[in-house]
Write a structure and sequence with these properties.
three-stranded mixed beta sheet; alpha/beta; globular; single chain
């Protein structure tokens, strides 16, 4: 597919999100091979489901109290998708009305892709979905790129940061760059002997700040390049350690809210931050912690992975109406 023009993004953050309420949450043996953050649970399947749903509903409640608009869709009952709670890996949306569908590394995650859901979300929220770039064909070539897990997007400057891994391949990055118009800054990252499976575990970009675990980038030249790009973007650079990375300190997302921007992060991440790091963040955002310990521990992904941003445009007449009129789509 060759879209008429590159992606056009002029906002870094949004106050519109969609989330998938998990119906089959649990350990995923297929993804565990590349995800060093997954842990074997000590709960039964029924207990895990109850805990995951409680955490999920708690995140939605915290976001909605802050004035963030959340569209919630149910997991599909006829598909076994233990990681459906992490929709940011299969789709991204953009300010020009584009949605991108991504090639997933494991078979049981490919079942999470739901193009029909994008149409429903757009209709329900009054968003304009103008085109879809489908990169899922790359799976046949064994080339993968897992959405805004693999890509940390500087939407303001058209830069896509990407840590190469078993889930983030050079060929797929090249295709995203060619079709989307983003300049890719690729690098290698690891903790110990294992590569980091997703870029959004080690870095996060807000409007005016960047969180980065630079020690995970072993190559000195690559590390300098990434840091220089972040500083050149005008953002304050906040460094976190490898141990803080393990506590999901960089797996967070700035979201717009009526009272000002907030940084959605897990309680685990918040407790790992040093006082100076908190002060630097609070110059730019209010911290909005949520409890997702079970999802982090068993799923190996944090709260940022649970949040799929909706950057699609809305007609002026809808954009100016009360945001509270948005309804959740039916399961």
């Amino acid at each position: 597919m060759n879209p008429a023009e590159p992606l056009s993004d002029w906002r870094q953050v949004t106050r519109h999100l969609f989330m998938i309420r998990p119906g089959h949450f649990g350990p995923n043996a297929e993804t565990a091979r590349s995800n060093q953050f997954q842990r074997v649970p000590s709960y039964t399947a029924a207990e895990l489901s109850t805990l995951a749903l409680r955490e999920f509903d708690g995140v939605v409640a915290v976001l909605e109290r802050a004035g963030v608009q959340v569209l919630v869709a149910a997991d599909l009952p006829d598909r076994v998708t233990p990681d459906a709670v992490f929709p940011n890996n299969w789709v991204s949306t953009h300010n020009d009305g584009t949605a991108v569908l991504y090639p997933m590394a494991t078979g049981n995650r490919r079942a999470e892709r739901r193009p029909d859901l994008l149409v429903r979300l757009a209709a329900e929220g009054g968003f304009e979905l103008r085109r879809v770039i489908d990169l899922s064909w790359l799976e046949k070539a064994g080339s993968y790129l897992e959405g805004t897990g693999s890509l940390v997007l500087d939407r303001l400057h058209g830069i896509a940061f990407a840590a190469r891994s078993a889930r983030t391949h050079a060929e797929a990055l090249g295709e995203f760059s060619r079709l989307g118009g983003y300049r890719v800054v690729a690098f290698d990252a690891s903790l110990g002997a294992r590569e980091i499976y997703h870029t959004n575990v080690l870095m996060s970009l807000g409007q005016k700040f960047a969180i980065l675990c630079s020690e995970a980038i072993g190559d000195h030249a690559q590390r300098q390049t990434v840091c220089a790009e972040l500083v050149a973007s005008g953002r304050s650079l906040i460094e976190v350690s490898g141990e803080q990375l393990r506590q999901f300190a960089a797996n967070c997302l700035e979201v717009d809210a009526p009272g000002g921007p907030v940084l959605v992060l897990s309680e685990t991440a918040l407790h790992s931050l040093l006082p100076g790091q908190r002060r630097m963040l609070e110059r730019h955002v209010a911290l909005l912690p949520v409890h997702v310990a079970t999802i982090e521990h068993v799923g190996g992904g944090g709260v940022r992975c649970m949040l799929a941003e909706i950057h699609l445009p809305r007609p002026a007449r809808l954009d100016s109406r009360s945001e509270n009129s948005l309804q959740h789509p039916d399961p």
